[in-house]
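Re: the 313-residue chain
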Amino acid sequence: MSNNTKPSRRQFLGTAGLVGAGAVLASCAPSMAAPAKDNLDVAVLNFALNLEYLEAAFYLAAVGRLGELDGIGGSAEIILPTGVNSKQKAFNGARDGKGMTFAVPAIKAYADEIAQDEINHVLFLRKALGAAAVARPVLDIGPAFANAAKAATGADGALTFSPYDAEPSSDLYFLHGAFIFEDVGVTAYKGAARLLTDDSANGVLESAAGILAIEAYHAGQIRTILYANRASQTGFGVTVEQLIGAISDLRGLLGGGKDQGLVVGGKANINPTDANSIAFSRSTREVLNIVYGAKDATKGLFFPNGLNGAITK
């Protein structure tokens, strides 16, 4: 699906992967033979917990609060940007309470708020899962971004990219990094809705819907700021609109075609939707393709050793 044209309803239904829960489980969780309903909810929530660990690490590092994840879900490594590149000096503050250098105070405030939301999601899911909560996996919020940028742009091995870079615009680099995650989170939670079974008052389904709403708020906020800066140069020879389009195209290639950039048909596209203005859904396999960086992979990119839990491949 091109990110230049919103799909027709027929095209969307053909690509959305709207299959029964049994088929999704067969492809995404082969180790779960005829699971009980409560076990299925546990598997789905743990899948979400892995993604929340990643988002929490990304935002907390940006605002100097990465230490708040220490001891939550274990002590697995969080891989950070390395090297002596001057652009990466600001990121030395990932744990010192200062964080990276933001040019616009309001964007730092947004980052701080989202960081709090994401760690709250981690804590909420771990509490809901209790002893069944999976440990935090190894996370890569350093080299993985450079590898994602190379894959999106087709650049050679000389390309370096970190969302925490101080130059030429830390804010735009940070927002590009956030863009990689946010739309994926929305589509992942919406896709998981068909698998959840506990729809009782204050049950799993209602709570997941609440998290989905917050992730959608985040995505809309990030896309709005990027759209306002769409003509700005990124430092890689393309505009913000073009680089976001390349990221969207890559996510679409890996994640079932359900993606759109900042502009569709020459008009603002803050809310990526089908022709009925309904948010896209992704299966767990499509989400894994994106966060692992390759179709049918079992690990890689942001999760070097893979996710933890029943739904990992």
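Confidence is low (pLDDT under 50) at residues 1-35, 84-90.
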